[in-house]
Amino acid sequence: MKAPDFKLKDETGRPRTLQDFKGKKLVLYFYPADLTPTCTEEACNLRDHYPELKKRGYEILGVSKDEERSHQKFIAKHKLPFSLIADPDLEAIKAYDTWGKKQFMGKIFDGIARTTFIISGNGILERVITKVKSKEHTHQILEEERTI
Fold first, then answer.
1. Domains plus CATH for the chain?
2. For this structure, is 44 an active site residue?
3. CA–CA distance from 117 to each of 52, 60, 123, 140 (Å)?
4. pLDDT tens track of the chain, all 148 residues?
């Protein structure tokens, strides 16, 4: 299945598209919000294992509805070596079907379901991780790679 394309700005205001990653495996991960505990654990897990992921040919791109300025703070505070995409209008979030009803502390609301898509260098959706374990996310990505 072909992965949905997108054209959204990263933390620097630079437009990014799926085509920017042609020829590279892409870890496209959707997360609810910058600087929140679980999202920070997930981003830092990817940061800590970034050299291994790069060595295996992966690029990483995070997506949330936060604005560019928020992404800049998140990247600076946690020294993230990869870009984050601002999707305030939910274009990619909805195209990848990661927006929907959530429940937290008894409250029901609309939000982003933490989900990761592994996309081939040809833009083909290879895998989807829906039960993301924030502290073990890199392991999930690499473990599933071994089983294919």
1. 24-147 (3.40.30.10)
2. no
3. 18, 10, 11, 12
4. 999 999 999 999 999 999 999 999 999 999 999 999 999 999 999 999 999 999 999 999 999 999 999 999 999 999 999 999 999 999 999 999 999 888 878 888 899 999 999 999 999 999 999 999 999 999 999 986 654 4
The Cα–Cα gap between 117 and 27 comes to 6
Burial class of 20 by CB neighbour count within 10 A (0 to 12, 13 to 18, 19+): middle
Global model pTM greater than 0.90:
yes
- Per the CB < 8 A criterion, the answer to whether 68 and 13 are in contact is yes
Q: Which of 27, 39, 80, 86 is catalytic?
A: 39
DSSP category for residue 31:
-
Q: Nearest Cα to 137, choosing from 18, 40, 34, 14? A: 40
CA distances from 83 to 1, 17, 35, 92, 144 (A): 25, 12, 15, 15, 23
The closest of 83, 81, 79 to 14, measured between CA atoms, is 83
